[in-house]
Amino acid sequence: MKNIDNKKYNFGIDLGGTNIVIGLFDDDGNFIGEEYYKCPTNANRNYKLILKDMADGCYKILVENKIKITQINGIGIGIPGKCDIKNKLVIGACNIKSLNGINIETEMKKFMDVPINIENDANCAAVGEKKFGASRNYTNSIMITLGTGIGGGIIINNKILPNTEIGHHVIVLNGENCTCGRKGCWETYASATGLIREAKKYAKKNPESKLNDIDENKIYAKFVFDVAEIGDKTAISVIDNYVDYLSEGIANLINIFDPDLFVIGGGISNQGISLLRKVRQTVQKKIYANDLNTKIVQSKLGNYAGIIGAAFLNK
Ligand SMILES: [Zn+2]
C-alpha cells in the first residue's frame, strides 16, 4: 500500500467503444497501483451509467491506494469521437451515441467533483507519446495508431492540433468505402482492418497460399505478417501493398507538416524494425525531392499512450 502523503495525482481515462480503461499517475507519469482498471463500456447504455462506472472505477483506485480525492489534480478523458475541448462537449461519438451533445464536465462532476478535461482519444495517445514517450524531445511530431482505423495526432510547436482526422485523407479516388462516408480514405487501406480485408481477397484468389491455413474469418494482422515471414508469396504481396499504402499516407503528412518525428503505434507497429525499415525506404522514395528528414519510429508507450496522454492533457 502506498503511504498517505500530499503528493498530487492525475487520472487518465480511455473511454473506448468496448472498454473503459482508467489509470492513475503521479506527476512524473508513473502508474499508481499494480495495474490499470478496466471495465466494459456497454456502449448502448445511457451516458449517465457510463460516466458513473468511470467515477466508480476512479474511487476504487483511490481507496485501493489510500489516496484522498483532494490529492487529485483532475481527470482527463479520451473520447472516441469529435470534441469541443474548450466547452467539454462531445460533438460526435459514433460508437457511444448517448454521449453526443453531452457536456462531460458538468455530468462527470455530479459523480466526482474534480477538474475534468476531454480530448479525442487519438490525440490523447499523441499527447502521451509527447509527454513521456518517443516524441518527448521533439517540438513537431505526428503520431498514428494503426488499429481498426487510423487514429493519430499532430503536434506543432509542442501543442496538439485540435480536431484533426488523420486517417481520413483520400489516397485512392473512388476506393473502398470508409466509415466516414467517403471512399478511399487512408485508413481503409492502411489500418489493420484494411490489411485483413486485402489478405482475405488475396487468399481467395490464391488457394495455394498459407493464408488459407486458417478460417477466412479468423485472419488477423500478425498472422499475415507471420505467413509472409516464412516466404509465402501471396502474403508477401499483401504486406508489400500494405507498406505502400501506409507509406503513401505518411509521405503525404510529412510533405504537409514536415515533422521532426513520425511515431507509429497500434498492434501492427509491434512488427518493429523490419516493418519500420520497409516503411522508411518506401516513404523516402515518395517524399518530395526524396529528401526525408523526418525520423520514423515505433511508439514507446504502446497501449498506455492514450491514458497517460489523457491524464496530462492540461500540463
Ligand atoms: Zn474516411
Detailed description of the structure:
This protein is α/β, with parallel strands linked by helices and 315 residues long. The chain folds into two domains: 9-127 and 305-311, ATPase, nucleotide binding domain (Nucleotidyltransferase, domain 5), CATH 3.30.420.40; 137-299, 2-Layer Sandwich (Nucleotidyltransferase, domain 5), CATH 3.30.420.40. It is built from nine helices and twelve strands. The strands form three sheets. A five-stranded mixed β-sheet has the order 3-2-1-4-7. Strands 10-9-8-11-12 form a five-stranded mixed β-sheet, with helices on both faces. Strands 5-6 form a two-stranded antiparallel sheet. Helix 3 (121-132) crosses helix 9 (305-311), helix 6 (221-229) crosses helix 7 and helix 7 packs across helix 8. It is globular. The structure holds zinc ion.
Short structural description:
The chain is an alpha/beta fold.
Strand order of the largest sheet: 3-2-1-4-7
Radius of gyration, CA atoms, in whole angstroms: 20 Å
Counting DSSP E segments of at least 2 residues, the number of strands comes to: 12
Which structural class best describes the helix and strand composition? alpha/beta
* CATH domain topology of the largest domain: Nucleotidyltransferase, domain 5
Q: Return the domain count.
A: 2
Key descriptive features of the protein:
single chain; 315 residues; alpha/beta; Nucleotidyltransferase, domain 5; 2 domains; five-stranded mixed β-sheet; 9 helices; globular; binds zinc ion
Set out the fold topology.
Blueprint: E1 9-15, E2 19-26, E3 37-40, H1 47-64, E4 72-79, E5 82-84, E6 89-92, H2 104-109, E7 116-120, H3 121-132, E8 141-146, E9 150-156, E10 159-160, H4 186-190, H5 192-205, H6 221-229, H7 233-257, E11 261-265, H8 273-286, E12 295-298, H9 305-311
Parallel strand pairs: 1-4, 4-7, 8-11, 11-12
Antiparallel strand pairs: 1-2, 2-3, 5-6, 8-9, 9-10
Helix pairs in contact: 3-9, 5-7, 6-7, 7-8
